[in-house]
Amino acid sequence: MALDMRRVIDPDTYFDHNSPPTNLGWAHDEVDKFIKAQSPDQRIVLVTSGGTTVPLENNTVRFVDNFSAGTRGSCSAEQFLAMGYAVIFLYREQSLQPFNRNYSHNTKGVLSFLERTNGQIRIKPEWEEKMGQDLDNYQKYTQENKLLMVNFTTLSDYLFLLREVSLLVASLGPRVMFYLAAAVSDFFIPSHSLSEHKIQSATGDLTLHMNQVPKFLRPLVKNWAPLCFIVSFKLETDPELLGPKARHALEKYGHQVVIANMLHTRKFQVWLFTKEEAMRPAVIQISQDDLDAGRDIEQDLVEELARRHQQYISSTLQQD
Ligand code: PMT
User: Fold this and answer.
1) CB neighbours of 250 closer than 8 A, spacing ≥ 6?
2) Domain DNA/pantothenate metabolism flavoprotein C-terminal spans what residues (predicted)?
3) For the chain, what is the domain count?
């Protein structure tokens, strides 16, 4: 079927014209098992994390990436687990993962937590406690069925997986939170317009025409998971745009919370926008000293969201 890609397509049309990821069936079965293993009042959160890629070729050598290391998502997942949530972690392959993030992307240097003593490789004493806690927590949460990790790479992988997981958890209603921290592409090249093979440089400059990706928050809030507690993120680099764009998202999609953050201060300051606090958003902030002392803003952020989620669950129970 021919498709006019100059206009913004609707989400269903997007799915009709793109192929699902190879792990979709596996993800369906694992999420299904995961939610069936939870007790009836268990709070569950879907954390999305990392950036989506948009391929420029079908046999992909080059792609456009969205900025996100996965710090927000992986750190938040750890906090949600500590607060008693069961976590489905939908993450970009090779981005930061809970309990592994301090070792896979160690800012103090590659393998700097190891040393060789008398010919034996061992963990440096100053790392032992932290590593031991991370290992214990990771093993405990996976064995107790409290952490499930599902990975994506491309925009299309992400959208298929997001829809699949949303439809599966939707029946659990208000006790499910969506925490959409992944950085999702706003532009893509439709699969029928993609070059089959590596684009050749011999032809000179490259001009790309990218189409707008439909906003998937709309079907998520309205159709896929209408009873769940939905938190989206708004990332901007221009401070003038942040508040207006966060308010606009709330009005347009009608979900519960928008967390606004600026690219360069995202580790120190975030604003929580809700319908009631649209003009006076709650601010959560930490200092550089806090950060240097190993404190993450996600601790306060997740605590605050868990509190609001609990209020949401209680208010929907009262309505029933
Ligand atoms: O991982 P870190 O390095 O720690 O960085 C964290 C972060 C800055 C990436 C994170 O805090 C953040 O802001 N994530 C959202 C980034 C983003 O995609 O913002 P946006 O303004 O493009 O999208 C806003 C919302 O719309 C998002 O919740 C997204 O899930 C949703 N969206 C986006 C595009 C699209 N086509 N459909 C969507 O539904």
Assistant:
1) 258, 273, 274, 275, 278
2) 178-266
3) 1
Residue 6 has pLDDT above 80, yes or no: no
**What is the pLDDT at residue 4?**
44
ipTM of the complex: 0.94
Does residue 108 fall inside a structural domain?
no
Here the contacts of 236-245 (C-beta below 8 Å, separation 24 or greater) are 236/260, 236/262, 236/263, 237/262, 237/263, 237/264, 242/271, 243/271, 243/273, 243/281
Residue 5 pLDDT > 70, yes or no? Answer: no
Residue 167 lies in a domain: yes
CATH of the domain at 165: 3.40.50.10300
Q: How far is CA 126 from CA 122, 130, 290, in A?
A: 12, 8, 19
Q: Candidates 76, 217, 261: which one to mutate for ligand 1, based on the most atoms within 8 Å of Cβ?
A: 217
26, pLDDT greater than 80:
yes
What's the mean pLDDT in 81-97? Answer: 98
Q: Which pLDDT does position 9 carry in this prediction?
A: 79
**pLDDT tier at 105 (50, 70, 90 boundaries)?**
confident
**Ligand 1 atom nearest to 186, measured from its CA:** 36
In a domain, 33, yes or no: yes
Per-residue confidence (pLDDT) for residue 7, from 0 to 100: 58
Residue 46 CB–ligand 1 contact under 6 Å: no
How much is the pTM? 0.95
Q: What ligand 1 atom has the least distance to the C-alpha of 261?
A: 13
Using pLDDT thresholds of 50, 70 and 90, give the confidence band for residue 288. Answer: very high
